[in-house]
Amino acid sequence: MNIEINPETEQRLQKEIQRGHFNNLDELLSRALDALEKEEISGSPQAGNPSRLVEALMSPRFAHSELYIPPRRKDSHRLVDL
Fold this sequence. Notes:
Elements: H1 7-18, H2 25-41, H3 51-57
């Protein structure tokens, strides 16, 4: 199987491997898929929902990696000077 990714994603993947979080790309992808399957089994968002990947990358497993997506701030009110 050939997978095409953009250069920025490739750099992020290489950083995670160099940091020692994963031994190789196969391990990184396997762990991400395992996290998705675990969430699916535990009753997380339904299959086919793209937010599953985002939720997986927000999990503690990826907390110290470049793949981690921090939670959004719920308070979206901001003061703006006009």
